[in-house]
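Possible regression after last week's pipeline update?

I re-ran a chain I had predicted before the update to compare outputs. Posting the input and the new output here so someone can diff against the archived version. Not blocking, just want to make sure nothing changed silently.
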Amino acid sequence: MKGLWITQRAAWAVRGSEQVRRGVRVARSIALIVVMGLALLRFDTPPRTDLSASLDRALGVPQFDFVSWWLGAVSAKLSAEAVPLHRHLTEAQQSEYVREYLERLEAFRALEAQVEAIYTDPKHRDPELASTALRAQRDALRAELDARQTLVESILQAQIESVLREEGFAVGGQVFPPLRFRFTAPPDLLVISRRDRIMRIDSRALAPGLTVDEKDRLERRVDGQFNVSSLVVRLGGLAAYPTMIAESTSLQWLVEVAAHEWVHNYLAATLSWVGLSILSDPVALTINETAANIVGKEVAPRVLRRYYPESVAELAADARAEVRQPQPKFDFRKEMRETRLRVDALLEAGQIEEAEAYMEERRRLFVANGYPIRKLNQAYFAFHGAYNDEPGGAPAAGRDPVGPAVQALRQRSASLGEFLRTVASLRSFEDLQARLR
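New output (post-update):
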């Protein structure tokens, strides 16, 4: 009996120590989420300048409430860390759970479109009554999606981290910083550029849901008051911590954006020049965004091949069908690159009004050929030109040498992990050029 009692005590001690270790791991994860979140929220705050201070007073529209959003997101993540439900599912069950979520999301959007069609159709004298059943189905499906959301996020986080872990981004088995995201409606972003050159000088995160006329009035007011070029753009994700990702039925897009936003967090967490200077240095911003695009586009196929092989086959079939489609006569890439180059030349010659008139002329050409660009200005190029990971350079980037240099660095790196760690060690664009030489 004494031996049995000692054995039971030993078993209790083992179970107790396991619970303690698990509690320590959860506590560390919680602390890391809180510290990273606070640090990166502060990091996302623009520098206070005369323009920034005046801009806050002049906006006249609600800015995004980061604090309230962050508190809700962190609460959801802490609950998931404390009770990691996804670990009780097999890999196959996890993938199936994600697929079912995306199918339900697609069904929800279809119902939402049907309700909107009823409210749009003038033959329905009482659209509220006519849409009663559809709205009930829609709302029930939305509630189900909300209940499943956190678990789906946990599954995708773990699946993406498995690839990042292979690339050497784990410390003691834990990817650093941990990849954490939340499905949400990201804010709209007010991008501000100088008029005499394409250069992003400030930005503001606005509450989502602004109507197109509200955006236009805001841009006109900011342009007139500060003699700048501004544009309100829609974001697919934002690198707060946890990061924000717009809800989408495209699995490839979700994984790609989640990995992309993690790169921003990684570069900030390593206290690198590329990570900490994006608000003050356009070169650092372009390196940062280009590297994030490269990583996202390489990580997503690996995750899909490992956990969702049927999606890879579907994407390959879609790509083959797209190749068979007749090529449009209007070459968007060529025309946009030509536009950027001409604008740069006019601005370098000091012909600001001529450059702006030319951009409006070109915008009408794009609209006439099926590309509904609402506004084409210096802010448009300052925003879109920073994502310069396309071979030969992104059309909106013109002759900017930064993106092609980052692409060359990836080609010369033995692995994705080596590439990103090199980016984190850069001290300037000249440093990048020297390493390429």
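Follow-up from reviewer: compared with the archived run. The two ends are 76 Å apart (CA to CA). Marking as no regression found.
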